[in-house]
UniProtKB/TrEMBL annotation, chains A, B:
Organism: Methylophaga thiooxydans DMS010
Protein known as: Recombination protein RecR
GO biological process: DNA recombination; DNA repair
Keyword Zinc-finger among record annotations: yes
Gene name of this polypeptide: recR
Keyword annotations: DNA damage, DNA recombination, DNA repair, Metal-binding, Zinc, Zinc-finger
InterPro entries the UniProt entry points to: DNA_Rcmb_RecR, Rcmb_RecR, TOPRIM_dom, TOPRIM_RecR
Length: 199, 199
């Protein structure tokens, strides 16, 4: 493809590290930043460097945060005996927004995926085992995604908790609110049917 | 919404200056960069700053380039008497790739849009008039987009060229190659019908 110069090509290729950005979008973003919004571009470069410098993982729950220990882990009013295990930092935000849960979190930053070389070490499982061994946790809530990898990861962690006689729960599967039976996938429907509750 | 910290929030909001990136994508990009691809993020910040420092507009044709005058304007083997007028730098690349055109370009960086405060000045029209007054140009090729604004801009420039007795041409409208009549919009079809050519 014809080129406009090395710095422009470099920016187009660097933008492709963003998820969901292909060559056409990267080119469009580059022209937009250079033609129309240089201020926004400079602000983005600065915000990116600041975040890379300041943001680390909480030493306790592994969420992204800007101090050694995140605000939720520092908050002593939160329940200390419940531990909710999620895949991503955004899952913590979603649960905080949607529920009244006031316990602890542990962020795996992914799920077990041996083919990609992601094993227990990469998910911080050794740190999780230490925590479970402290004997402060009475309930482990598994909130990994309902995908094959998420289920496998949940199963793996549930074994760790059971070995230590800790109660393990999993988010309920079933029909989403506002869903219509006709349009729900058969896996979900079968799950909801066999897991029916008496009212 | 719950927050993970000021640097993270700042990065999420800064990413929204990219075209097509809303709050959800910006959040996903932020977590991806900070969790999975810090190297890519650092590279992006550097590429962005380099491009903002090095890239400017060619003084002659206003395309984005890294020197005072772009390579196409420096190339004396290109025809000096044809001038193709486009809206965006990417249009130059598209024409270079698809055609054998070897003349000059002029990049407007947009189209006339009085409501957004984009008038002739912002499109470099004074510079274009200087160029037309040099009397080196024998044909102006209008290659603005076939939108209402693009057509209005083309009309405006065609008047400038006609006043100076310069031949003006416009890219042909019609049925795109591989198109099926049934699925072509009525505006294009009516244009193609009334502009039919004898073979």
């Amino acid at each position: 493809m014809a080129s406009l110069g090395p710095s422009i090509d470099e920016l187009i290729s660097a933008l492709r590290c963003l998820p969901g950005v292909g060559p056409k979008s990267a080119q469009r973003m580059t022209f937009h930043l250079l033609e129309r919004n240089r201020e926004g571009g400079a602000h983005l470069a600065k915000a990116l460097m600041d975040a890379l410098d300041n943001v680390q993982h909480c030493r306790r729950c592994r969420i992204l945060c800007e101090s050694d220990i995140c605000i939720r882990c520092q908050d002593e009013r939160r329940q200390q005996d419940q531990l909710c295990i999620v895949e991503m930092p955004s899952d913590v935000l979603a649960i905080e927004q949607a529920t009244h849960y006031k316990g602890q979190y542990f962020v795996l930053s992914g799920h077990l995926s041996p083919l990609d070389g992601i094993g227990p070490e990469a998910l911080g499982i050794p740190r999780l085992i230490e925590w479970l061994d402290e004997k402060t946790i009475l309930e482990v809530i598994l909130a990994t995604n309902p995908t094959v990898e998420g289920e496998a990861t949940a199963h793996y962690i549930s074994e760790l908790a059971r070995e230590r006689q800790i109660k393990v729960t999993r988010l309920a599967h079933g029909i989403p609110l506002g869903g219509e039976l006709e349009f729900i996938d058969s896996g979900t429907l079968s799950h909801a049917f066999s897991g029916r509750e008496s009212i």
